[in-house]
Amino acid sequence: MVHAVPRTEAPTRRDYITAGGAVVAGGLLAGCSTGIGSDPQSTSTEATATQERSYSVEMAPVGEVEFDGVPETWVANNGSWADMGVALGLDPPKGVWLTSRYHTQYYDEVPGVSVGKSEMVSLYQDGVSKELFFELDGDVHVIDPNFLMNRFKGWDQSDVDEIVENVGPFFGNCIYAQHYPWHEDYRYYSLYEGFEKLAQVFQRTDRYEAFEALHDDFRSNLAPVVPGQTDRPAVAVLWGVGDEPKEFYPYIVGEGTGFKHLRDLGVRDALAETNIQDFHGSRAAIDLETVLDVDPEVLMLRGYEAMTREAFQDTVVDFLRNHETASALTAVENGDVYRAGGLYQGPITNLVLTERTAGQLYDVDEELFDRQRVADIVNGEF
After folding, report:
1. Helix 79-87 and helix 371-378: axis angle, to 10°?
2. How far apart are CA 347 and CA 366, in angstroms?
3. Residue 177's CB: how many other CB atoms inside 10 A?
4. How far apart are CA 45 and CA 19, in angstroms?
5. How far is CA 184 from the centre of its chain?
């Protein structure tokens, strides 16, 4: 089990950042992060070298951000970015949008890697408070500021500017799905493109490169176990409403990190072959009768990742088996109802979810990635 190395030095004061070409006060904390599995001695040496120079990293929509030293503390938008930080061997972020949707139990699949959430806070608490950002005092906010200004009412550009000037910069892109209209005029990043940017921020590109090589090997292992198109079952990806779901939010498999495991497995999307609209566009639910009209061979249900496999079977699946309409579904009759994986995936959680889903859909019973290699990279032993 890996534990974060405690800090032994008091934080230094922030000096400056350059964001989008403009110098603003209250920049980034100089220092070096002492993350999961880090060697304190080597970290100290790296910090000294890094503090002698500034560096900049560019990412849409914020643009170029200049750092005078490696961030020590950070705040993340969601589990996609938090998991990237774990892969880089960082201390966990101080906060994410909703801690309940950062499923750290996935790390149980990788002996030598563990992440606790006891001190992590949810940014969204019936709204998002600027005061919370001041309390968290993150050196960098790996959050798309447009998400804050458009996902709910309450923030505008002046609020973002206030946090940048008095706490720390924003640096992030909303990459988990590609459906928000406010994101249409700037680019998205793939999981590994975003991962590389974060590695540059924290000056840990060696770990990124090691993960990229591991991911290439994983894709090579995955290719032969994915059957031909005609041999793949028709799958409906739905978000179940409650533990006894009679309504579902339909998800068409699309771009974004939240669908990467399904894309990599070449999932045959049963809903894409119908006139049912994706929930991201319609915000509407469908009932069991509509699901029965589609009658997919496999049901992949989102919203249940906090449950164990056994609890999911004993509650959600058991309800469907005993419901008059749901019990007539081919997937229910054949026992092919599974958890679909979370919306937020980083490099480690994607490996775990893709392997899990390969077993569910294609009866793959072999390990498709090297757990020890993952742990070694996280701990800087590669």
Report:
1. 80
2. 19
3. 19
4. 28
5. 21
Give the architecture-level CATH label for domain 14-203.
3-Layer(aba) Sandwich (3.40)
CA-closest candidate to residue 195, choices 380, 65, 308, 57: 57
**pTM of this structure:** 0.86
Question: What is residue 235's three-state secondary structure?
Answer: strand
Q: What is the DSSP string of 294-349?
A: H--SEEEEES-TTS-HHHHIIIIIHHHHHSTTGGGSHHHHTT-EEE---S---HHH
Where do the domains of the chain lie?
A: 14-203, 224-375
CB 134 within 8 A of CB 167: yes
Between CA 15 and CA 70 the distance in angstroms is: 12
- For residues 135 and 38, give the distance between their C-alpha atoms in angstroms, rounded to a whole number: 26
Q: Which stretches within the chain are classed as H helix?
A: 40-51, 79-87, 130-136, 145-150, 157-166, 191-201, 205-222, 260-264, 279-282, 288-294, 309-312, 318-322, 330-333, 347-362, 371-378
pLDDT of residue 130: 96
- Residue with the two structure tokens 């992440």: 115
Q: What integer is the mean pLDDT of 365-381?
A: 97
Report how far apart the first and last C-alpha atoms of the chain are (Å, whole number): 18
Coil, strand or helix: which one is 63? Answer: strand
Which of 26, 279, 257, 25 lies closest to 144 in space, CA to CA?
Answer: 257
CATH of domain 224-375: 3.40.50.1980
**Length reported for the chain:** 382
Asked if 145 and 164 count as a contact pair (C-beta separation under 8 A), the reply is: no
pLDDT at residue 202 is higher than 80: yes
How much of the chain is helix, strand and coil, in % rounded to 5? Answer: 40, 15, 40
State the virtual CA torsion across 199, 204, 210, 211 in degrees, nearest 10: -30
Domains 14-203 and 224-375 in one fold: yes
Instruction: Of 13-17, 71-75, 122-126, 335-339, give the lowest mean pLDDT range.
Output: 13-17
* 11: pLDDT strictly greater than 90: no
pLDDT value at 146 more than 90: yes
CA distance 166 to 27: 8
Half-sphere exposure of residue 273: CA atoms within 13 angstroms, side-chain side = 13
